[in-house]
Amino acid sequence: MKIGIVCYPTYGGSGVVATEIGLGLAKRGHEVHFITYKRPARLNHFNTNVYLHEVSSFDYPLFEYTPYETALASKMVDVVKYEELDILHVHYAIPHAAVAYMAKKILQTHNIDIPIVTTLHGTDITLVGSNKSFFPVAEFSINSSDGVTTVSNQLKRKTESTFNVEKDIRVIYNFIDFERFRKTNKDHFKKAIAPDGEKIMVHVSNFRKVKRVDDVIRVFQKVQAQLPCKLMLIGDGPEREKMEELCRKIGLCNEIRFLGKQDAVEELLAVADIFVLPSQNESFGLAALEAMACEVPVVSSNIGGLPEVNIDGKTGYLCEVGDTDTMAEKVLSILENPETHQRFRTAAFEHAKTFDIENILPVYEDYYKEIIKNVNGKVLA
Ligand code: GMT
After folding, report:
1. What average pLDDT does the structure give for the chain?
2. What is the pLDDT of residue 183?
3. The model's pTM
4. DSSP bridge partners of 234
5. Rounded to the nearest 5°, which phi and psi values hold at 322?
6. Which among 111, 255, 281, 321 has most CB atoms closer than 10 A?
């Protein structure tokens, strides 16, 4: 199959999922064309089946805002037409699904009917799509896609209750590439972070408000008052400065390490003892799943799709949003007893294995074939 993938090239979330789907499908022999405004972070090796088409920006004195959507639509038209793509898979509804609709309409004037699959990731529905400024376009573009998937059952329900959805939404979970997430033992990292054998708490996110990183720090403050512990904060974003200030205010700068954006997050997760994800909203929680794949139990909020990933009392614990007392209690209950810790570690890993990319990619392949057949009658082997 010749597949076009449109995504945000940024760290975390939808961009990572989109890149890994593309790379996985390329490994399985498909020709994959990424269309983005920058090289996606995880597209860092040459691969014979992978092509990258960057959307060029064009400055003109008249533009206060560069019309990126127009440039993206033109690029989609070009790539579909000249690379003879079978399908376009767009990640994140705003603006990708809307732009795909425009590209599809233009391509129809060239007698090409390109099937469009849209994957909804979470904030494109909960924060952005449901906002008044985007609502009508989000609803229209979901309904105009030929196929729509969500990354959890909860996000499917949320989409259906937010919009007037005329499509049958398919749930296809996010996944783990175990080739990458094979547990690596980086003892020198452990020594650098926790020189006296302290426990290591970790959090990975894009430091947006929705992630409640301040709650991570509050949980850590309570835990480290009882147990020698260090905190690794991985990622970067709008809340980072405020978080640094908070660490200074509570006098824990020496115990908390801000590591910024990291490519090989699995090497850091491998030395961690517990992952904390207290988000206000989380349609899936890929960061939690990645931790679990490294045998790290998760204490998270009980919001959105998190209960589909983190099994309460087994792979970690689910707590009410903002309840940092209970989160700290749960962290301590896991870390204070080595046998309990090992039981949670094993269960986290076992549950993560049910999200193996090797099981998910064939689901996408079958879904693409179904949508292609519905749209233009082509039957692909
Ligand atoms: O919030 C983020 O981390 C980024 C965001 C995105 O779309 O890039 O993540 C969403 O998609 C991820 C991949 O499907 C999910 O694992 C996250 O749960 C989801 N974030 C939210 O719903 C807040």
Report:
1. 95
2. 63
3. 0.94
4. 204, 260
5. 90, -10
6. 281
